[in-house]
């Protein structure tokens, strides 16, 4: 990306200077082939100017390139790498006399960028403007991050840009090794006045389509472009459908395989987010590696916005690390492999009322009528914790622990994050009266361990309780305890009788 950015600026300046040299003498449209040839020599790609080239002179040097197209090279079915219906930019002339390049707002109408990896695994952005990084002294550190050895050439460092207005754009990433594609259409970008190492306000919006799923994405904040090719976002808000991050701050550096986003922090649903992401654009499927920490997050609104699932409330702390593929034949979630752990405090699981389920099961065994729910069932808890092992989008946990003043729940199982299904085997222990949670006490179950199965979908979970087994086990334990008490009582009575008999015998012989 650093090479591409510098090369695009170089290309624009080359076009502007080439046209400016001809303005006073000839019509540049007569030399469109020569201009195209200069670009082709620089990029080793076909370059075609399809529209009329327009220009202005003093006090500003302006150019309207019209429609243009830059090819992808051999092996990509003549698909262009980049194109636009119009490109307009102006440059103030007096600053040139002082060695500064002050560009006005760059306006690009209906640009299109096609990022293609062909069936042989070769990408159309590879080799573009090769050699630019050498001019900039770029190297790679031990972590794969790229850094500049020195400042940019003076003519580039002196550039300032009045801004960028990009309207009705289109970006498509196509991976033919996996027969998958991601499209962002339309893309709109508004970027304020730019200079290296200075914050620039920006707004961006795009509609992302992958495998028939549409995602509305918006971002606004401050952008910093540094001389070493890295980028920073500050005080940025990002909205992905209903998912919102505020006060986002991140540093993005190019690596030998893509980009690293670190440090990365944000305010997130009443809590804090910190992460470290690596985006591998050089590999099939565009893998995303992540190491994330959430603390003090309101889990209910988060899960509702993220997965349209409003069945859990509470304050959560979560950490996870793993990887998934952003581009592939399968949904991204189906490629997720990760490990993590979570702790949720003072919350509830909506849609499941374990206490009511136990009371109704006991009522059926005793031939009594069951409770008819008049509201959304819910199981309150003081803490809910566990660890996760996610493989290909299926999350497994063997140490789920839910504690409340009434119940203790332990066990494990799995949930399919793509199909949104459940399969859990749990053990419920009644540790107090259930009268406090919307019902009557059931002392018969106090201290018993009750098997509980939860299956079905996230929206309609099914609960199965083996209460008869629990009662039998509880009854057997109670019988053993009663027999032990009776044996102890009998032993005490016998000891008392022996003592009395001893006293009587001593009195007789005396």
How much is the radius of gyration in Å?
35 Å
Number of strands: 30
Form type: elongated
Helicity level, as a percent range? 10-25%
Q: Classify the beta-strand content into a percent band.
A: over 45%
Q: What low-confidence regions span 5 or more consecutive residues with pLDDT below 50? A: 131-137, 434-441
Distance between the termini: 113 Å
Average pLDDT: 77
Count of helices?
8
Main beta-sheet annotation = 25 strands, mixed
Structural class: alpha+beta
Describe this structure in words.
The strands form three sheets. The chain has a 25-stranded mixed sheet that branches. Strands 7-12-15 form a three-stranded mixed sheet. Strands 10-11 form a two-stranded antiparallel sheet. The N and C termini lie far apart (113 Å). It is elongated, with a radius of gyration of 35 Å. 24% of the residues are buried. The protein has 510 residues and is α+β, with helices and mostly antiparallel strands. A hairpin with an 8-residue loop joins β4 and β5. The chain is built from eight helices and 30 strands.
Give the helix/strand layout:
Layout: H1 2-23, H2 32-43, E1 47-49, E2 54-56, E3 60-64, E4 68-71, E5 80-84, E6 86-92, H3 94-97, E7 101-103, E8 106-109, E9 112-117, H4 132-136, E10 138-140, E11 146-148, H5 154-157, E12 159-161, E13 164-175, E14 180-191, E15 194-195, E16 199-210, E17 213-225, E18 231-240, E19 243-254, E20 258-268, E21 271-280, E22 287-298, H6 299-307, E23 312-325, E24 337-350, H7 354-365, E25 378-391, E26 394-403, E27 407-416, E28 421-430, E29 449-457, E30 461-465, H8 467-509
